[in-house]
Amino acid sequence: MPAKGSNSVTKTFEMLELLGEFSDGISAARAAEITGYPFSTAYRLLGGLVESGYASFDAHSKLYTLGIEVFRLSQKVAHRRGLDGATKDLLRELTVSTGESSILSVRRGDAALTVVAVDGPQFRTTTDPGDYSPLHTSSLGQIMLAYDSDRDASIERLDLSARTPRSITDPGQLRQRLDEVRSHGWAGQSEENDIGMNAVAVPVLDLDGRLLAALALAAPVFRRSLEDLVALTPELTTTAAAIAARLPR
Question: Which positions ≥6 away from 158 have C-beta within 8 Å?
Fold first, then answer.
């Protein structure tokens, strides 16, 4: 741990570096002990990192970990590092074996953030790293909602606006869809997020069953029916497990 800084910016970066050293998470009390800062200072710095997305807080364990914004930043300033560098070869293999575009997304607030995308040989994806998509209309977002421990509260917060005539906009219908997603272990959507596109997504889970990300295959409707894509979920699930093994806990 570097020497303590004298200003708030330096202290914030020191706290961010500390989070990087404790991949399993650290409490505010332990962070204060290691840095030598008063508990109130450590708590304030960690809270600021959580608010900005550079840290995550688990209300159950009371532990702080690095947030997904760290990886999003890496996408912007060093495209070959972070999640891209750790997982893109797996997505390439998935796209080669299926012939369709593959997309890895993580949850960022009330949206799905694309972090890695590999175009299919005959069709370009409709999303790029750094793009956001609604949780209720995309298969990736529906996976995130289905595995949300506070699902109903999230649904109440969402703006369930339609992106296409097929989008789900009724909360009750969305809850029913999410129940089906949890039951099946995958989410499929046909022209609910983009006209002319089908997609199927599966969760990327850690060993404790917590959602790390969501992985999808997308294809234009004239190339693949939704049923065709659903038939590829075993390959999706295998790749998702390989991705989970590479992602930080």
Answer: 110, 134, 135, 136
Domain limits, the chain: 8-70, 82-245
DSSP state of 121: S
DSSP 109: T
Per-residue pLDDT for 6 more than 60?
no
For the domain made up of 8-70, give the CATH fold. Answer: Arc Repressor Mutant, subunit A (1.10.10)
> Is the model more confident about 72 or about 218?
218
CA 66-68-70 angle, 5° bins: 70
Whole-angstrom distance, CA of residue 223 vs CA of residue 187:
19
Q: 118 has which bridge partners?
A: 102
**Is the domain covering 82-245 a CATH 3.30.450.40 domain?**
yes
**Nearby residues of 101 by Cβ (< 8 Å), 6 or more positions away:** 95, 117, 118, 119, 120, 123, 124, 125, 217, 218, 219
Within 13 A of 192's CA, how many CA atoms are on the CB side?
24
Tell me if residue 110 falls in helix, strand or coil: coil
pLDDT given at position 10? 85
pLDDT the model gives residue 74: 54
Residue 80's pLDDT band (cuts 50, 70, 90): very low
CA gap 220, 168 in Å, rounded: 20
Task: To the nearest 10°, report the CA torsion of 50, 56, 23, 76.
Answer: -70
pLDDT in tens, 82-135: 566 678 889 999 999 999 999 999 998 889 999 899 998 777 666 788 888 899
